[in-house]
Amino acid sequence: TQSTRPQRLLGAVQKNATRGHPRSVIQAIDHFCRNKEWAMNVGDEKGCILDSVVSEVSPATVLELGTYCGYSTVRIASRLPPHAKLITLEFNPEFAVIARQVIAWAGVEDKVQLVEGASGDWIPRMKEQFGVKTFDLVFLDHWKDRYLPDTKLMEECGLLRKGSILLADNVICPGTPDYLEYVRNSPRYESQYFKSHLEYTKVEDGLEKSVFLG
Ligand SMILES: O=C(NC/C=C/[C@H]1O[C@@H](n2cnc(C(F)(F)F)c2)[C@H](O)[C@@H]1O)c1cc([N+](=O)[O-])cc(O)c1O
Ligand SMILES: [Mg+2]
Fold it and tell me: Interface pTM (ipTM) of the complex?
């Protein structure tokens, strides 16, 4: 039976990366996606911007929407301060199976809680289920038409506090026009665009960093 792309990506990690070395896992995935098969990881160029935001925020609590194969999960988790927690939501069980193994290979599983299901079901349950009060950082990288409704849902559920940072991938390509319009025009956010390129290509894309003002 045919393997899937996530399965082949995991194989490249297990073949080329060193267990317990997150950077080697990131390098193995980037090499695989540049030279063998493109995949929708945030990638190395936008990944550096993600790294700098994580280091600057030094968050105690992080929510990632859209685990996929765990590339950005590993990038974020490997830069968290001690005792910090990253909750990552994944809808597709087959992707979750791969992501758990990539996260374990990198040796960051102690900082990561991978939750399977839909954002609409899980966001309202974050406080009671995981003892989360608010998120210091949210990385949005899931279905592009869900960025705005899920941001409004996080506001309604009181999961954002004054100073919480939203970092959104793909605001140009594939694009999240309604989300962008909202965070750039709402008085409740201070937004900044980080111009970059779509992972592993020369196409323009970027990350939007938005501070919730409370
Ligand atoms: O479509 C893209 N990404 C969609 C990503 C979707 C991923 O997010 C998961 N999810 C869905 N809901 C949830 C949650 F969390 F809500 F439960 C998690 C899906 O199962 C999938 O793994 C994309 C496309 C391109 N591209 O160039 O086409 C480039 C990119 O960087 C991209 O991220
Ligand atoms: Mg993306």
Answer: 0.98
Among 144, 150, 205, 209, the one annotated catalytic: 144
CB of 169 closer than 6 angstroms to any ligand 1 atom: yes
Q: Which tens digits make up the pLDDT trace of 40-67?
A: 999 999 999 999 999 999 999 999 999 9
pTM for this model (two decimals): 0.98
pLDDT in tens, 6-25: 999 999 999 999 999 999 99
**Ligand 1 contacts CB of residue 71 (under 6 A):** no
Closest by CA to 53, choosing from 154, 198, 175, 193, is 193
Q: Give the model's pLDDT for residue 20.
A: 98
